[in-house]
Amino acid sequence: MKTNSTTPLIGLEDLQFTSRDARISPAQVRRRGLVKLRRGCYLEGNAVPEGAERWVVRKLVTQARAVATVTAAASGAALTMDASLAVRGIDTWGNTTDIDYWPVGAGKNSVRTSLAQVQVRGIQVPPARTIPHRASRSGTTTELIRGIPTVALAETILDLARFAHPLRAWVGITMAMRDMTCFDRRFLDESFARVETLRGELLTELQQFREERGYKRARAVVRGVDCGAESVGEAALLWILTILLRENTDLRAQFQSQVEVHFQGRNYFMDVGFPNLPFRIEFDGVEKLTLDRGMAREFTRREHILNNLGWDSLALGFDSLRDVHGLARMLVADLERRGVKTKTLGGPLWMPIPARLVDPRYLH
To answer: Distance between CA 72 and CA 122 in Å, rounded?
Structure first.
């Protein structure tokens, strides 16, 4: 799923806050279509468009939870990690995420809390947690996004690298770096050059935590992300491939995102390509077809041209990411059939996958 610039964003004006002396009765909640996010905080029902798709509803509730959490915390608190990305409209690994933030001091507003499951527009949004951080911040800048305090995007990236599961970190950092560098596949060389400049700056900032546990993994994530990935699924696929093909110097094992092919005056881009095989992996290929017959014909024509040019293909859907080990086995079998040696899941980028990370309720 690619970022949809038309997806609405939740702001402070979409929330209703009450004091202990001015509680809202259940009848008022029903009549006004309010959704309780946490004690004293409600989401205006009309903030979520009627008929919105499930993933849109869940993203908007995540944004609302983030706004509610940082507003309830002491002045000076700031959102980070997936919550920081969510309020900016940047895609994250899941569309329902925990709310990470940097509190001010250690008091009643800086403890972990649970956010209950809610129903909005007939769609269930699973529970989440608020997670205040206690470690050392990498920066001191707080930005206001539509009045919502968040850490800067660069600090968001470092926090993801330091504290998040590497899959979640890899995906979030990919999307954040694309946003920071205004990545545009029409200008690949310039885009990748901006990415490398930003990567160098981030790695320099990350060095201040070199004595911190997990630094090696955090550095590997920042060094490895490929900002050619245009979607959460493509980013996750590149994470798995990077792990499976680590330390492989065989030219056949070299892969890259956004491989460009020119044919009869037109440019065609592949999600992931192995130029020396040649072999390509296309993510969500079927979902790229719409009810628009013209787009469907163009997609079919593209596949026909690339196949005729010798680019064998493997098509994957987002559902394949719910079983990372199964997907890895599929990729290993396909690559080794082509003479490419792989490794087992491991190395600095790998950690066991918690069940919640691939729970369908939290994914796109």
So the answer is: 27
